[in-house]
Amino acid sequence: MQDISLIITDDKIISANMNTVFGFIQKEVTFAGSGKEAKNILQGSDRILLAFVLLSEEQEEKQVLALLRSSYPEISTHLIIAPEETSSSLKVPAGVTNYLHFPVDFESLMHTIKKAEISRNNLDRRKGLPISLTGNSDEIQEVESLIRQVSQADANVLLLGESGTGKEIVARAIHQFSLRADGPFIAVNCGAIPPELLESELFGHEKGAFTGATNSRRGRFELAKGGTLFLDEIGDMPMPMQVKLLRVIQERTFERVGGMKTIASNVRLIAATHQDLEQRIAEGEFRTDLFYRLNVFPIKLPPLRNRTSDIPLLLKEFSEKICLQLGKSTAIEFDDSAIEALSQHPLPGNVREIENLVERLSILRPGETISADLLPPKYKSLLALPERTQHFVQRPNIEPRAPSIKFDSGTINLKQHLSALEKSLIFQALDDTDWVVSKAARVLTLRRTTLIQKIRKLGIRSENRQPQAISA
């Protein structure tokens, strides 16, 4: 549903001219001839994006501006002025975004509308969850539920997930919905800072604490006071620093490097990693006690290949966002073939990979509908696999039955035998599902991407429909 611009003026010439202009640019507009009429329209619609105001009675105009400022701050408000007036020399009243010269310049008006759309979209994103968490899948709905639950507590949170799944975005969302939202959000990448500098980075230092410390400096814990401190890639933190971080979490106090004064810590701690911390503990690279201190409320972010049903929504949201950023008039769209190609790809970069792809295509092919043929080559490589869409009759799951084997020589190549058995079962599943990979994956209780990898590894081709004989 299209946003509406509201023209509030008692000048009939301006009304007629603005109606013509908005009709030409195909944008919806409505008119109010008085402050009272404007108030009724504002109360009856939540689609007002812009308000353009010019009333002959100065007091009435001030009342309208006051109403817009106090009750509808999300509406971008502009005062209409005569061409001989210079907007740069005029003081913009409180609550007014800018001035609009009349007669209206088409390019100037389109720019004004575009800026208002970007502002509204940014406001909507602040009210809701970020684009990276867009989706209707059960996996992302669970993540959204956990974000809203933990945001109202002050517990430590541990975010787990692959690179590109949106761990920092989730951390910012938790901060945004928390009671600390008015405080700072400070992010530190523990893997990007040299070990010898990490202590100073986190806790600050006093003048003369080490060579080059010519001034005192506050650390991230101090900068995040009253807000949230996000420790990204916590799995890369050196063991000596883990001990010091544990002490801060336990005692909620710390000292700057080279300092004697004890400083109280008042931060909400959120940590994130793409690593398996329990495996790191087993390897002696991460402290068990620190893990349990951080793991009060874990949130695991699913890779995009596990929620492919969300890909169309992500493509649409990113296309619209990037269209506004680039100042384009029409966002790119993705047809079914492109969506299917992306859904078949493992997408190791996850949501970040999708966003980068959309930005690239928005620059190369602005306003176009993107088909699979227009995607970069790496996304088209899996399309060669047969994915026929004929009517499919559900078949029961395949029960693997190992062939009878005679140990004539007293030995057997188990690895070769299991590989042949696996290849035979995959062939049978593909034949039974008319070579529809996604259906065969369900029969075999595998992920589609896993099955595609096995098809490649085992050299399975549709030309040879008969499975190879299994031999010991």
Automatic annotation (TrEMBL):
Domain of life where this protein originates: Bacteria
Keywords: ATP-binding, DNA-binding, Nucleotide-binding, Transcription, Transcription regulation
One of the protein's GO biological processes: regulation of DNA-templated transcription
Transmembrane residue ranges: none
Keyword Transit peptide: no
Molecular function GO labels: ATP binding; sequence-specific DNA binding
Domain Sigma-54 factor interaction: residue ranges: 133-363
Pfam families xref list: AAA_lid_14 (PF25601), HTH_8 (PF02954), Sigma54_activat (PF00158)
Name the UniProt record assigns to this protein: Sigma-54-dependent Fis family transcriptional regulator
